[in-house]
């Protein structure tokens, strides 16, 4: 037996519906006073925004309030009982459909906190759902003879635009104030807010009162609200300007006067809707930026305070800021070392390796001036920013220029960012104050990439020089910080010569051995006087019989997987058609692995392939759980795999899921 809801909840629901019906009725009657084309169609319709905001904030339980308010407003205005019911049904469906779409796709009641959700809100709630009410209402009136066939289009447009502008202007105002109702302004901010409100009233009166009818004078006011206050205040300015503009237009003044009052209101509402569409996203972006800055400052302050108190954890922190493991990159081998200085182990040296689009690889070596928690905080900021800019596709030059802009007063850092194309052995790099990267050629010769610019932190707009060159295939690239070569007695040239002697002629077949030898030759048993970091990358021959790759279960890993397969499959003798089929099938299997790799820890999946007697066997493993297709548009990936491969098997168990793909190569390389 279903449990009855508490009486108090029922009472609250009834009160909410009654209050909503009253608000809707009053707003509707005011809006219908401006119905000039048809008694039931107006270009100014605040109830659409009220209803939409109410359903988003209170839930679908308040739909009777929307229906009752709409029904009573139309019944007491024009039409019949039947047309009033039809219009009320359309208005109620408009609110329910709009709230459902916004909740599902645009962030729900928080839609106006993010710019991308605002554009979705406009499309779903202000354009699509309002067409439901316009179509239902005008059709009901037309069938009852209250709208002539020739007037259907103009009446529908007036109805729709009135509902759309109400949904955007009024709903944004109500949602933002309901979600952020507390005003915690300083005295200076209160004074600025008063100045803004006064300017809105004065400029609004001047523009829409006919003194100087130039509507774009309102744009600076909206920009002021967006950049200095936020989305809530921007929505408030839009509502105030809309009210003043409607008043002026009805009194025959302002820039939107047309042949009829209805046409004037349509032009006005279209302008205010566009102003809202432009300025609300701007305000949201500015607010997001401010929140991000505040979060960054808060996290940095917490970071500094915490680790100044807990000095025993600084070494653990240093290691956590460096890559926990280097990525697996087919065709390349990568190794790194970090040796902290004494007595303070926490410094600002860092290194990073990450795959880029097109099969390229990003190599980073950086050094923040100073030691301790402060240097590590700057290091963490730069490391994350550099990786983000690089993955966005910016060139080394552009990355350096952006990094220089995020440096704060008193911060200084050097960094070398090198992009390696392992297919052409081509590099492009920027060196902002780091020791020159060393290249160990297959002949044993050591060359230095000695083009360099000034370090980051100049606090001036700076253009960094980007350099490109082709390396000898099978070379080894070595990046390092000055802690490797720094001594108190030798100059820079002598130190580089010491490094050159330590690596010249050394085989690069084992990078770990190479780095161990380098540290022994330069540092010996002594700790460096400054933090020392080493990063080396060299070519690794591909085995035409075996392939293994482990990747983080993120969508970005699919590009790395495809690039790796494009390098390996030609070694097996696969034809271009077979390469395309295998990459497509494995990509589908990997996409499934990513989708099902859940859990609080960093999830991963692996791909392993073996060529034996002309037969290619591939296994894609994850630690998730295979699920049956959800919906009619899902499950096509498995069908595609079976079309492309000779056989496909899916094995799922408590430990995870494995997809086995099998294909016979026509021209497999014989071992």
UniProtKB/TrEMBL annotation:
GO terms for cellular component: plasma membrane. It is a multi-pass membrane protein. It is found in: Cell membrane. InterPro entries: Bact_Sigma-Reg (IPR052016), HATPase_C_sf (IPR036890), HATPase_dom (IPR003594), MASE1 (IPR007895), PPM-type-like_dom_sf (IPR036457), PPM-type_phosphatase-like_dom (IPR001932). SMART domains: PP2C_SIG. GO terms for molecular function: phosphatase activity. The keyword Transmembrane applies. The chain crosses the membrane at residues 14-37, 49-73, 85-106, 118-147, 159-178, 190-214, 234-253, 265-287. Residues 329-539 form the PPM-type phosphatase domain. Signal peptide: none annotated. This is PPM-type phosphatase domain-containing protein. It comes from the Bacteria. It comes from Candidatus Segetimicrobium genomatis. Keywords: Cell membrane, Hydrolase, Membrane, Transmembrane, Transmembrane helix.
């Amino acid at each position: 037996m279903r449990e009855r809801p508490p009486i108090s909840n029922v009472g609250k629901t009834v009160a909410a519906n009654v209050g909503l019906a009253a608000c809707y009725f009053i707003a509707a009657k005011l809006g219908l006073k401006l119905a000039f084309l048809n008694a039931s169609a107006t270009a100014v319709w605040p109830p659409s925004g009220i209803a939409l905001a109410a359903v988003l904030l209170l839930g679908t339980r308040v739909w009777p309030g929307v229906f009752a308010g709409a029904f009573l407003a139309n019944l007491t205005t024009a039409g019949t009982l039947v047309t009033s019911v039809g219009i009320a049904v359309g208005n109620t469906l408009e609110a329910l459909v709009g709230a459902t779409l916004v909740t599902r796709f645009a962030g729900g009641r928080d839609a106006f906190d993010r710019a991308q959700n605002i554009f979705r809100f406009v499309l779903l709630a202000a354009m699509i759902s309002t067409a439901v009410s316009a179509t239902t209402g005008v059709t009901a009136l037309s069938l009852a003879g209250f709208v002539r066939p020739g007037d259907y289009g103009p009446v529908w447009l007036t109805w729709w635009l009135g509902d759309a502008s109400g949904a955007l202007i009024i709903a944004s105002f109500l949602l933002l104030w309901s979600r952020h109702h507390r005003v915690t302004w300083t005295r200076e901010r209160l004074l600025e807010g008063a100045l803004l409100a006064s300017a809105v009233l004065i400029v609004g009166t001047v523009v829409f009162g006919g003194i100087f009818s130039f509507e774009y004078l309102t744009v600076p006011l909206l920009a002021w609200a967006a950049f200095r206050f936020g989305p809530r205040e921007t929505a408030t300015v839009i509502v105030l300007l809309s009210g003043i503009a409607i008043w002026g237009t009805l009194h025959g003044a302002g820039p939107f006067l047309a042949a009829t009052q209805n046409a004037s209101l349509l032009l006005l509402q279209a302008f205010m809707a566009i102003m809202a569409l432009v300025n609300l996203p701007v305000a949201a972006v500015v607010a997001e930026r401010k929140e991000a800055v505040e979060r960054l400052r808060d996290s940095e302050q917490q970071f500094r305070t915490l680790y100044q108190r807990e000095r025993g954890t600084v070494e653990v922190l240093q290691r956590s800021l460096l890559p926990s493991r280097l990525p697996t990159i087919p065709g390349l081998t990568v190794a790194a070392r970090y040796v902290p200085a004494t007595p303070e182990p926490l410094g600002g040296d860092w290194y990073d390796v990450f795959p880029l689009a097109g099969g390229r690889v990003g190599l980073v070596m950086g050094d923040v001036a100073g030691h301790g928690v402060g240097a590590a905080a700057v290091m963490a900021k730069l490391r994350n920013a550099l990786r983000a800019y690089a993955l966005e596709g910016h060139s080394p030059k552009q990355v350096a220029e952006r990094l220089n802009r995020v440096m704060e007063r008193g911060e200084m850092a050097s960094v070398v960012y090198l992009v390696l194309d392992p297919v052409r052995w081509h590099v492009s790099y920027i060196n902002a104050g780091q020791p020159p990267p060393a290249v160990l050629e297959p002949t044993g010769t050591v060359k230095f990439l000695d083009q360099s610019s000034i370090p980051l932190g100049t606090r001036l707009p700076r253009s960094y020089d980007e350099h490109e060159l082709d390396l000898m295939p099978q070379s080894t690239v070595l990046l390092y910080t000055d802690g490797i070569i720094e001594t108190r007695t030798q100059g820079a040239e002598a130190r580089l010569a010491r490094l050159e002697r330590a690596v010249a002629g050394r085989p690069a077949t084992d990078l770990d051995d190479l780095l161990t030898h380098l540290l022994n030759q330069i540092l010996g048993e002594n700790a460096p006087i400054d933090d020392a970091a080493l990063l080396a990358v060299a070519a690794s021959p591909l085995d035409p019989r075996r392939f293994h790759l482990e990747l983080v279960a993120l969508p970005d890993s699919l590009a790395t997987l495809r690039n790796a397969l494009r390098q390996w499959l030609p070694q097996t003798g696969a034809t271009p058609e077979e390469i395309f089929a295998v990459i497509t099938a494995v990509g589908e299997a990997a996409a499934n692995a990513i989708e099902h790799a859940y859990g609080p820890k960093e999830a991963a999946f692996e791909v392993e392939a073996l060529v034996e007697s002309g037969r290619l066997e591939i296994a894609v493993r994850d630690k998730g759980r295979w699920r049956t297709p959800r919906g009619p548009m899902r499950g096509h990936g498995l069908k595609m795999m079976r079309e492309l491969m000779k056989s496909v098997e899916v094995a799922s168990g408590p430990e995870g899921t494995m997809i086995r793909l099998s294909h016979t190569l026509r021209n497999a390389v014989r071992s």
